Amino acid sequence: MADTLHMVTRERHTYKKWFRSRDFSFASVFNMTPVSAAEMIHMARAFPLAFVEIDGVQTLVALFSLRLGHNLFVAPDGRWLGGYVPAAVQHHPFSLGVKGDGNVALCVNESSGLVRDAAVGEEGFPFFGHDGKPTRETQDVADTLSKVRAGLQTARQAGAMLVEKKLLEPWPITAQEEAGNRKIDGVFRISEPALNAIGAEDLFALRNAGGLAVAYSQLFSMGNLAMLATLSNVRERAAKQRMAIPANSFISEDDGNLKIDWATFLKDD
């Protein structure tokens, strides 16, 4: 079913309620997402961050997979396997849209199955209270998405300065697949030697633009690249055994091999 986005208004949603998504299957085709300055530290801890060209601009993104249309952090049963759920995923079915006057408005995907009439059942969150104002839960979503949107612009500007200072370099990544190794092109990282050699004046300007935070976050996150291979192996093993990937698998990295605590396999939270 195609997305049906509607701006959240009192006229349309006063007698409706919404539910938090417990199934992240909708995100299973996202192999990356732009990183906002508002989430950058959390994203750097959970995913490998890289720079890719989006709309002609080198953009900091979190990699969920090295294959288009695949998200290794979404299990076949819809669970999110990562240690952090990005705001755009966490707050589905909400997003921000731009109105004709250029102002930003909170929108909701009514085809998500997460928007219902308020009279049906006792669960869920009303869009608006009896006073006609957004409920605390609805306002919290709007505030979070607004901060993320502003942070995307901050990260975008910082990335532009990193390009200007010639601090990016191609990131040589090879994906190991059954058909053989596949070289991943178009992915960039911070050049650590170039960053260490930058002059004091440029360093100061980079810091003020938020570029240093972006640079160090990307460098810090690079160790998470191995996680993609680990999750890919988990998925292959689970597929072969015709079992779902558990949300609470224990993965040991002591010898570089995948070890899963199968006793917790398919255990409910």
Verbal overview:
Helix 2 runs parallel beside helix 7 and helix 4 (136-164) crosses helix 7. Mean pLDDT is 86; it is low at 250-269. The strands form 5 sheets. Strands 1-7-6 form a 3-stranded antiparallel beta sheet, covered by helices on one side. Strands 8-2-9 form a 3-stranded antiparallel beta sheet, with no helix packed on it. A 3-stranded antiparallel beta sheet has the order 3-5-4. The protein has one domain (5-264). By secondary structure, it is an alpha+beta fold. It has helices at residues 10-13, 40-46, 87-90, 136-164, 192-196, 200-208, 211-221, 225-240, and strands spanning 5-7, 16-18, 32-34, 49-54, 57-63, 94-98, 104-109, 115-117, 125-126, 168-170, 173-177, 180-184, 188-190.
Question: Could you write a compact summary of the structure shown?
Answer:
The protein is of the alpha+beta class. It contains 8 helices and 13 strands. The two termini are 30 Å apart.
Spans of 5+ residues with little confidence (pLDDT < 50)? 250-269
Backbone CA Rg:
21 Å
Helix content: 25-40%
How do the strands of the widest beta sheet line up side by side? 1-7-6
Strand percent estimate: 15-25%
**Approximate shape:** flat
Oligomer category: single chain
Q: Could you describe the largest sheet, including whether it forms a barrel?
A: 3 strands, antiparallel
Quick check: average pLDDT? 86
Report how far apart the termini are. 30 Å
> SSE string, helix = H, strand = E?
EHEEHEEHEEEEHEEEEHHHH
Give a count of the beta strands, DSSP E runs of length 2 or more: 13
Number of helices: 8
Q: Provide the structure class.
A: alpha+beta
Total domain count: 1
